[in-house]
Write a structure and sequence with these properties.
This protein is of the alpha+beta class. Helices cover about 20% and strands about 35% of the residues. The protein is built from two helices and five strands; from the N terminus they run ββαβαββ. α1 runs antiparallel to α2.
């Protein structure tokens, strides 16, 4: 029999690179057609779940809530979009205490270079 103690396990939920079509950009031409934005969310609860039922966060419901909140709107700034999504993240994860982070990446920029991306990352704590 192995007498070693099991170390505390860390738990983190990651939702990576969700594609959302959104009208986003400072220039009117950028907002004429929805463009692809990638959204990623990381969630590390303060107290990792002990049972499978506790570990369940309905990310399908979260995705629907995100689409409902932002899909019919226009955003001038990626920071404004990130703030809206951060509010949705906090709402979805409450009342569980922990640390969250959201990244929003605009994959096409209105630059003569024709390549690159812009990203905003926000993080917060739910206590």
């Amino acid at each position: 029999m192995d007498s070693r103690k099991v170390q505390k396990r860390e738990f983190e939920l990651s939702l990576r690179d969700w594609e959302i079509l959104i009208r986003l950009g400072v220039y009117p031409t950028e907002r004429q057609q929805p463009q692809k934005v990638l959204v990623s969310v990381q969630w590390k609860p303060l107290h990792p779940p002990q049972a499978r039922q506790e570990a369940y966060w309905d990310y399908g419901k979260f995705y629907d809530q995100v689409l409902t909140r932002v899909s019919d709107r226009e955003f001038l700034w990626i920071e404004e979009l990130a703030e809206e999504l951060a509010e949705e993240v906090e709402s979805w994860l409450r009342p569980t205490a922990g640390v969250w982070q959201i990244s929003v990446v605009k994959t096409v920029l209105p630059l003569d270079v024709g390549c690159g991306s812009a990203a905003v990352t926000l993080s917060g704590v739910i206590s």
